[in-house]
Specification:
Helices cover about 35% and strands about 20% of the residues. With about 200 residues, the protein is an alpha/beta fold.
Length: about 200
């Protein structure tokens, strides 16, 4: 089962979620995909995913977290022993988003809300300083990410398998090249791209 966790002000309809869903569907594995709509509140977002995972064998789950979803995926992977694919993950979103307090609009749903210090405190509570069992992670980063510094993610997940895409951007339009690697990793196989 692949559980896609979308990023900040994103939604299950995001480009990368749709690509992964389409590829699994083409393989006759549509039932193995889930992309919950995550609350703007981090604690509620985590609680919703935990409820979804309550009756699932952890060995059957691969989290696929993009940007802020990568932050959530790391915390969940550490707590429940899950595999996780992290795409341009946010490492310290409670610090990054401090410059964006105030009115926000979801890029897909149009929903509006106020980003507050309480949101940042909840994000900080989900921070993982050091990962354990690096083999359960696959990091995919675009060096051209204009929002997040990919070198920070490469350092934090330095012992994990990783795929480094030269160029690109935070939205990662080139993700289609790596969808099969994500699925192979989730299936317990090597992603087929050497670690750099």
């Amino acid at each position: 089962m692949f559980v896609y966790l979308h990023g900040f002000n994103s939604a299950p309809q995001s480009f990368k979620a749709r690509l992964l869903h389409a590829r699994l569907s083409a393989l006759g594995r549509e039932s193995e995909f889930s992309a919950p709509a995550l609350s703007q509140w981090p604690s509620e977002a985590i609680a919703a995913v935990e409820a979804m995972l309550a009756d699932v064998d952890p060995s059957e789950v691969t989290l696929v977290g993009s940007s802020l979803g990568g932050h959530y995926a790391t915390w969940l992977a550490e707590r429940y022993g899950l595999r996780a694919v992290l795409i341009n993950p946010a490492i310290r979103p409670h610090e990054l988003l401090s410059a964006h307090l105030g009115p926000q609009t979801n890029l897909y749903t149009g929903a509006t809300y106020e980003l507050t210090q309480a949101h940042l405190q909840q994000l900080h509570a989900l921070h993982v300083d050091e990962i354990t069992r690096a083999e359960r992670y696959l990091l995919i980063v675009a060096l051209g990410d204009e929002v997040l510094d990919s070198t920070i993610a490469l350092h934090k997940y330095r012992d994990a398998m990783h795929i480094v895409h030269p160029g690109g951007d935070h939205g990662f339009a080139e993700f289609s090249r790596y969808v099969d690697a994500v699925i192979e990793f989730g299936d317990g196989q090597r992603a087929g791209v050497p670690r750099r």
